[in-house]
Amino acid sequence: MKLAIVVVTYNAWNYLEKCLTSISDEIGNLHNAETIVVDNASWDGTSNLIKQQFPWVRVINNSVNYGPAYAFNQGVNLARDLNCGLILLANSDVFFAPGSIKGMYDHLIANSPADGVCVGLHNPDGTRQKFRTSLGLSFRRFDWTKRQRVFFFGTGCHMMRTSCFEKVGLYDENYYFYNEDLDWSIRAARKGLYFEYIPSFTVYHWGGIGRKQNHFHIAADLPKSNVYFYYKNFGKFVGTLALIIIVSSLLLKSIVLSILKLFNKKNISQKLNIQKAAMIKLRKFIQHGNDSISLGG
After folding, report:
1. Are 193 and 83 in contact (CB under 8 A)?
2. Distance in angstroms (rounded) separating the CA atoms of residues 209 and 257
3. Separation CA 182–CA 155 (nearest Å)
4. Do 223 and 246 contact (CB within 8 A), yes or no?
5. Which helix (H) or strand (E) holds 6?
6. Element of type H or E holding 160
7. pLDDT, tens digit, 9 for 90 and up, residues 209-230
């Protein structure tokens, strides 16, 4: 079965180079594997550097940073066109340990009931890195040393069958950054898809690189994204409650930051600008997003 590895990046060449190097070391044993990088309008020379150092990589160059949902959908669609039966989605700040990609591949080939698989994430220093495994609050302690089912299936580093997207659909591009994978996981759970965590393989993850490169836009968009998420997935009552809480929080933070600014506290202006931008985005969403909000019923 043909595998596609889809990596989304934005101004992270130092990490992407390591990621692609680890992929090149891994895919020698996987015949006809395709590697696709979706570059979200990086200005650090990413596209040219890929062509120079990794000419076997297929590159999709976006003129605008549309966010992960849009970019991953581009990669998934290309993987479909290339007749790939399995897709590995990854951020550019991961490094694949020897055997990890083939381990995920072999697990899905050998375990037909599993729709997707993820493995142990570790910090660069080798310590274990925990990640989300459930769709909401969970009081069950997750044993990171045991193979088991997971319900949250993110885009950080997961391999799944391409057929999952036929059953669930693509990522919702109304999300700019965050929530797109949680939204997709909820839809997948409602369709009965089964995902597994296997700790026997390792992927190293630096973490937070994409957020650092685009902090203002991400932070300003998140409140609107959260309101949309609750309306869409949990209905009008929960969505309205979330809207009230989020607006109240934004107003309170704005008041506090405005007071602190009077005392010339450092870094307050940018934080206050983020709150103002978030309020503007949220107000426009409420005014013009009736069709989107109605998804929640």
Report:
1. no
2. 26
3. 10
4. yes
5. strand 3-9
6. strand 157-161
7. 656 666 777 888 888 888 899 8
> Which residue is it, tokens 């989304």?
8
Q: What are the structure tokens assigned to 87, written together? A: 């897709």
Helix 13-26 to helix 100-110 angle (10° resolution) is: 60
Q: Is the per-residue pLDDT at 284 higher than 90?
A: no
Give the pTM. Answer: 0.86
pLDDT tens-place string over residues 12-68: 899 999 999 999 988 877 778 999 999 999 988 999 999 999 999 999 999 999 889
Q: To which residue do tokens 């599993």 refer? A: 114
Confidence grade of residue 99 (pLDDT, cut at 50, 70, 90):
very high
Query: How would you class 140 by CB atoms within 10 Å of its CB: exposed for 0-12, middle for 13-18, buried for 19 or more?
Result: exposed
Residue 39 pairs in a beta bridge with 9, 61
Q: Which residue has the tokens 């965590």?
A: 197
User: Residue 284 class from Cβ within 10 Å (0-12 exposed, 13-18 middle, 19+ buried)?
Assistant: exposed
Owner of token pair 């020379």: 45
Residue holding tokens 């992270």? 12
- Side-chain-side CA neighbours of 213 within 13 Å: the count stands at 21
Two tokens at 171? 């990522």
Question: Kind of pairing, strands 116-122 and 94-96?
Answer: unpaired
- Rounded-to-integer distance, Cα 181 and Cα 25, Å: 28
Using CA atoms, how far apart are residues 3 and 1, in angstroms rounded to an integer?
7
Question: 79 is written with which tokens?
Answer: 């993987």
Q: How confident is the model at residue 208 (pLDDT cuts 50, 70, 90)?
A: low
User: How far is residue 13's CA from residue 249's CA, in Å, rounded to a whole number?
Assistant: 36
H helices of 68-214, in order, are: 68-81, 100-110, 163-168, 180-190, 209-213
How far, in Å, CA of 277 to CA of 271, rounded?
A: 10
User: Mean of the pLDDT values across residues 137-159?
Assistant: 85
